[in-house]
Sequence to fold (319 residues):
Amino acid sequence: MATDKIMVIGSSGQIGTELVMELRASFGNDNVVACDLKSSAQEVMESGPFETLDVLDKTKLLELIKKHHITQVYLLAAMLSATAEQHPMFAWKLNMESLFNVLELAKEGHIKKIYWPSSIAVFGPTTPRQNTPQYTIIEPSTVYGISKQAGERWCEWYFKKYGVDTRSLRYPGLIGWKSAPGGGTTDYAVHIFHEALKKNTYECFLSENTALPMMYMPDAIRATIEIMDAPAEKIKIRGGYNLGGISFSPKDIAAVVAQNCPGFTITYKPDFRQQIADSWPASIDDSEAKKDWGWKPQFDLIAMSEDMFLNLKKNSGKI
Fold:
């Protein structure tokens, strides 16, 4: 059987950097093409093929798919929640047109399988906040959430109408040490580690008891690859699977950070992102993902924090 040839669009982002490296480790460096408008991390650029791509340019996208004989596309290019609120029209254009370009090329037979991430942003203030179920009220109140809700419905429609093999996860907030945060409402949970090591203090843009669903990046990358590797008949939901990891508040994570950084202090100065966070779930029910394709998270808050500090200290030469 021929090896899949994979394209990761948005390879310079928070997820893209780590996903490319994990896929290259599994499928071989030459079989995973990284694409973005800007250069990716050094390890991505040096370990395998990289192409400069504006995903809104469908002609160039098709050209690269043909050039590299691509069979699978991971479409990660998007404008995230906080940034999208400031640039609503461009966020809608980028988030939706990029998806249409890939879905249409799959419909035309150029791609066999698509991964497109959804988000907990599809939920809104009318959604049950605790243990949010897979099937529930979905009335997002942000531009990002509206685009993700629409994208879920389009993915399912293309699957039902044309048999396009679409797969999707509703990511919670993602925490990783390898790349800078990308303008999301949950980014405080990444910033806090960097600021603790630099200044031993952090000013948080959310209030102390704002609990949100989060996930450590290794779990998110593993879930992404696992859902793509799962047999098609196991994928029962083509819009977006709920994905759960850890739920905590700024106060919770600050307590864990303080255990690693004696004397650490945190202050709270909620900004416009507080309103976004207040519209999202506090915890997620991901039993459908567990039942359908065997999802299981590995990191809790303590294990994640220990790994974050270990790697950030290594990177800064403090260990």
